[in-house]
Amino acid sequence: MDSNNQNLVDLQLDEPVSSYLGETAKWAKFLGIVGFVVCGFIAIIGIFAGSTTSTALIIVGGNTGMSGVIVTLIYLAVVAIYFFPCLYLFHFDNKMQRALRQNDQFLLTYSFKNLKSCYKYLGILMIIVLSLYAIIFIIGILTDSGF
């Protein structure tokens, strides 16, 4: 059968592929858990950074306004952005490990759905970041600050 016309139903999860998927799932679990811990640290730092910013502005006589709250909200926004890829990786691991143990096609499909979601999320995030870089670059050229 021609490789271009090969049906996906003919694909097999043999022992090496199963082993690679199991190892990949373990690394995904590690990255997911480390990501959750980092999210927790960033949230804690954000809360303290917000209160520290307000305190520092009070000491120097600056206008505190909402500066501490804004700093905290920025940190919490970073946590929210970083949380979802970690969650997708963690779900990928859980479903993949169970699918391999139980030889369950539904769990295997669901685990790959989570992996796809993780990469889709990161891809969209990369498009947003690159767009912001392009906008900043264009603004920098147009303003020509003359360093």
Structure commentary:
The longest helix is centred in the N-terminal third of the chain and has 45 residues. The termini are far apart. With 147 residues, the protein is mainly α. The chain has one domain.
pLDDT below 50 for ≥5 consecutive residues: which ranges?
none
Total tally of structural domains: 1
**Rg from alpha-carbon coordinates:** 23 Å
Q: What is the distance, rounded to the nearest whole angstrom, between the alpha carbons of the first and last residues? A: 64 Å
Please give the share of residues in helix. over 70%
Broad structural category: mainly alpha
Strand content: under 5%
Give the overall shape.
elongated
Helix and strand run: HHH
* Continuous helix count: 3
Mean pLDDT: 86
- E-strand count: 0
Biggest pleated sheet: none
